[in-house]
Design goal:
This protein is mainly alpha-helical. Helices cover 80% and strands 0% of the residues. The chain has a single domain, classed as Growth Hormone, Chain: A (Up-down Bundle). Helix 1 packs parallel to helix 4 and helix 3 runs parallel beside helix 5.
């Protein structure tokens, strides 16, 4: 086994460990605070700083990764998540609402920094470890990393709901913190060599991408992931709990199954897109247009009074398939359009836009569900997807792997 493949495997395993806790903590917080009587918008506020600090971390994290190496930022992300899990376990439900919201928002800010340090480090490492000029290999490695991550995030959703039902809020968080400590220890002992550290000193003022293609792709990514979170982040789980009357374990299990399936599809995308080759910007536009149509169809069926179980649960399966393909193509394009020496900078900037979309989607999901239910969430989601398609029109049609 080559050093590059060994390091790729270790980085992937570390990312897996983090992702389990990231999915679980989201489900724990959402379901626990819904049970405590918090409104959809108040629940959305709990994740406000999580997404906001994710934006800031991606922007600065790319510079840190170039300057100090991706191992350092990876280990920092894992350590911060351990701290966030432990501190959140100290939450007292007897606190006044304002105090509780501020406390959880602060801890979620720490978790947001941890998540995006870890994600930026893992995804940037793929570019530096992939063989130079091998477009097909890069596409496969990116799809496997991202798809497996999403599959395990789904497992994390189920784990969060299960641990909450079995052990309660505090103990569940402490168990996860202990598990992540073990992952951090193994990673620190076994990961060898410098990964992603620039050969020349990187100036802080270069944190904003100078690439027009990366900038356009980033705006499209903002609207793409904002569209997903607009109905998936807050509206959907609350709809399942309130309108369909599902319990914690049922909501967690269904959300888990969806994300697991989504991750499996995402990891399999290279098998049916160009048969081991790499996609281009035209493919991205085609799949974005299809995703917009799927979202409009789900909205129309729900407004027409079609059985919610068929419309929402069945529609979500189709949405997940098409969204997984979109996400896999996007994750490849940002690496293909980046240069090796600046990959963490470009990836950091790109995922800052991703976090911005998630932030907008999270807040609008809470507000839209509170004002107009799941239908309003879906209407705004379709508008976001249309915007993503329009911004994708400006991408170069012949986006190619750029190793230089």
């Amino acid at each position: 086994m080559s050093i590059a493949i060994r390091n790729y495997a270790l980085v992937t395993i570390a990312y897996w460990g983090f992702t389990l806790t990231d999915g679980a903590i989201r489900m724990l917080v959402l379901l626990h605070f819904y049970t405590l009587g918090y409104s959809p918008f108040e629940i959305a506020l709990l994740f406000l700083l999580y997404e906001f600090f994710g934006m800031a971390t991606n922007l600065v994290g790319g510079w840190l990764g170039s300057r100090f190496g991706l191992k350092s930022t990876l280990f920092a992300g894992l350590a911060l998540q351990v701290l966030a899990l432990f501190v959140l376990s100290l939450f007292n439900p007897a606190w006044p609402v304002i105090m509780a919201v501020v406390y959880v928002m602060g801890v979620q800010a720490l978790s947001g920094i941890a998540k995006d340090l870890t994600k930026m480090s893992a995804k940037s490492a793929v570019k530096t470890l992939a063989p130079e000029g091998a477009e097909g290999t890069l596409f496969k490695w990116v799809a496997i990393l991202t798809g497996s991550k999403n599959t395990l995030k789904g497992v994390g959703f189920f784990l969060g709901g299960l641990l909450l039902a079995a052990f309660g809020f505090a103990v569940a968080l402490q168990v996860m913190a202990a598990g992540l400590v073990a992952v951090l220890a193994v990673s620190a002992l076994m990961l060898r060599g410098d990964i992603g550290q620039a050969k020349t000193k990187v100036k802080f003022r270069t944190i904003f991408s100078k690439s027009t293609a990366i900038n356009r792709l980033s705006v499209a990514r903002l609207f793409l992931f904002g569209a997903r979170d607009l109905w998936f982040a807050v509206g959907l789980p609350l709809y399942l709990a309130s309108a369909l009357g599902w319990g914690h374990s049922q909501v967690g299990a269904y959300m888990a199954a969806w994300v697991i399936g989504y991750g499996i599809i995402q990891a399999s995308v290279p098998a049916f897109i160009r048969r081991g080759g790499s996609p281009n910007s035209s493919a991205s536009r085609l799949w974005l247009l299809l995703l917009t149509g799927v979202t409009v169809a789900i909205t129309g069926a729900l407004m027409a009074g079609v059985t919610p179980v068929v419309t929402v649960l069945g529609g979500l399966v189709v949405f997940g398939f098409v969204f997984a393909v979109n996400s896999a193509i996007h994750s490849y394009l940002v690496l293909a359009l980046s240069k090796v020496e600046h990959v963490s900078m470009d990836v950091g900037f790109y995922y800052m836009a991703n976090a911005g979309g998630r932030l907008a989607g999270m807040l609008l999901s809470g507000l839209a569900y509170q004002w107009g239910g799941l239908v309003l969430c879906l209407v705004i989601s379709a508008a976001f997807l249309a915007a993503a398609f329009l911004f994708s029109l400006a991408l170069p049609d012949n986006a190619k792997f750029n190793p230089a």
